[in-house]
Write a structure and sequence with these properties.
Strand order of the largest sheet: 1-2-3-4
Number of domains: 1
Low-confidence stretches: none
Distance between the termini: 41 Å
Strand content: 15-25%
Helix content: 40-55%
CATH topology: Trna Endonuclease, Chain: A, domain 1
Number of helices: 3
CATH class: Alpha Beta
Mean pLDDT: 89
Order of helices and strands: HEEEHEH
Shape: globular
């Protein structure tokens, strides 16, 4: 694996770890009822909201990555987590925003 690929992989794993902690917090608050991580094109997580609504979520480590994601998958919400030390509350807010936008699009 090339160095650039290793760095991208490491950043992605760190971002997903931060999202895991945020999703656990959102589940404990009742914002989501379940979540699972997936390895599918355009999908990192599947969320189930308390009303039974299901949605997908993509995790990116840069705004550029988010732009590319939305070009390919315009209907799949995406959250950007820039680094592993990012505040969990901030990530929770970003995920809540994704949920709110997804609900309003239904």
């Amino acid at each position: 694996m090339k160095r650039q690929d290793r760095n991208a992989f490491r950043k992605g794993m760190q971002s997903e770890l931060v999202v895991l902690l945020a999703l656990q917090r959102l589940r404990s608050l009742g914002v989501i009822s379940r979540f699972s991580f997936k390895d599918e094109p355009g999908v990192d997580c599947r969320l189930t909201l308390p009303q039974g609504i299901r949605m997908t979520l993509q995790v990116k480590s840069s705004e550029r990555g988010r732009r590319v994601h939305y070009q390919r998958y315009p209907n799949h919400p995406c959250v950007v987590v820039r680094h592993a030390s990012q505040n969990i509350k901030e990530v929770c807010k970003d995920i809540r925003d994704c949920i709110r936008n997804y609900r309003s699009s239904l």
